[in-house]
Amino acid sequence: MSFAAALLIGFVIEAVFAWPARLFRLIGHPVTWLGRAITLLEARMNDAGQSAGVQKILGAALVLIILGGAVLPCIWISSVLPDGWVGVVIGGILAWPFVAARSLYDHVAAVARPLEQGDTDKARHAVSMIIGRNPNTLDDAGIARASLESLAENASDGIVAPVFWGLVFGLPGLVGYKAINTMDSMIGHRSARYENFGMVAARLDDIVNLIPARLTGVLFALLSGRVSQSFGTMLRDAGHHRSPNAGWPESAMAGALNVRLSGPRIYDDKIADEPWLNAEAPDADATSIARGLALYLRTMVGLAAIIALFAIV
Fold first, then answer.
1. 271 pLDDT band (50/70/90 cuts)?
2. In DSSP terms, which residues pair with 267 in a beta bridge?
3. How far is CA 103 from CA 4, 16, 107, 134, 229, in A?
4. Nearest to 68 by CA among 205, 179, 182
């Protein structure tokens, strides 16, 4: 049977159970295993005293080592899985940690609840779990905006993209994508330490997210109930985003909810004058997060239907 059936099983398991805290305490999580390997290699290979060219070469070597270490075992596992439903179930269990639909929902919902109750401090703490910038600079509208941006971008990076590459290349594609995305999140920053060393990781992540990001935006728009507004905002504003990919799901979400997203923000005490997505719309609030989560749920159901269709075909 195709890996799509296994992927659907893994998707459903994660949607029901997420990744249980007890299991995390016992064995960690495959993404944290990748993170430890990246941290160890980066500490040994990335030296500020090296030339820019050498840093780029060694950064590319790290990408090859991590990607090979993630993908090659999956190729072997795929070759020895038994035929029939036994192999499909085992494949589903293996796919389970790499699709984080329930986990993302829970993290964003944890922001909405205190924001609805007027507890800004608790909402700031919750949003700090899903964004990289300092939450103390955010007012209520900024917290809601950051939550929706994270929901939209991570729907692409954390769910649609691994599903897409799993459908294309099976378990090796699923795990290989997750390795690339983890490397980008850890060493793909435009900072003095990673500008050169992380260049290959960042560019590779851009490439593998080109199709999934646009597919996520299309799914948001089609399932939004505001199809023309969502599509119109996406086509008009996606290219304004600093990322070649994140602007697609974020602008589709902005149009679907009739709120403005992105805009100026503070990173490391510096103001980044980012353009607005859906600039003419009002600010987001706790109600906007609830509506964003409802759209996200519809999108996940739609994605599950697509996986099921591939499994049947």
1. low
2. 270
3. 21, 10, 6, 22, 29
4. 179
Integer-rounded Cα Rg, in Å, for the chain is 20
Q: What is the mean pLDDT of residues 65-70?
A: 98
> From residue 311, how far is each of 4, 86, 101, 160, 290 by CA, in Å?
5, 15, 19, 16, 32
Check whether 272 has a pLDDT greater than 70.
no
Cα separations (Å) of 149 from 31, 44, 98, 130, 179?
22, 34, 21, 10, 22
In three state form, how does the secondary structure of 109-164 look? HHHHHHHHCCCHHHHHHHHCCCCCCCHHHCCHHHHHHHHHHHHHHHHHHHHHHHHH
Q: Does 1 have pLDDT greater than 60?
A: no
Structure tokens belonging to residue 3: 């890996």
pLDDT at position 266 is: 64
pLDDT value, residue 245:
96
- Alpha-carbon gap, residue 231 to 237, rounded angstroms: 10
The owner of tokens 């697609």 is 248
What are the backbone angles phi and psi of residue 267, rounded to the nearest 5°?
-125, 125
**CB distance 83 to 74 below 8 Å:** no
d(CA 259, CA 278): 7
From CA 278, how far away is CA 233, in angstroms rounded? 6
What confidence score (pLDDT) does residue 270 get? 65
Ramachandran assignment for 276, one of left (phi > 0), alpha (psi -120 to 50 degrees), beta (any other):
beta
> In the chain, at which residue ranges do the beta strands (DSSP E only) sit?
261-262, 265-267, 270-272, 276-277
Neighbours of 131 (CB within 10 A): 17
- Identify the bridge partners of residue 271 per DSSP, sorted by sequence position: 266
Tell me the CA distances in angstroms from 95 to 14, 185, 194, 302, one per residue in order. 9, 21, 30, 19
- pTM for this structure? 0.94
Cα-based distances in Å from 37 to 6, 64, 76, 109, 180:
27, 13, 20, 31, 13
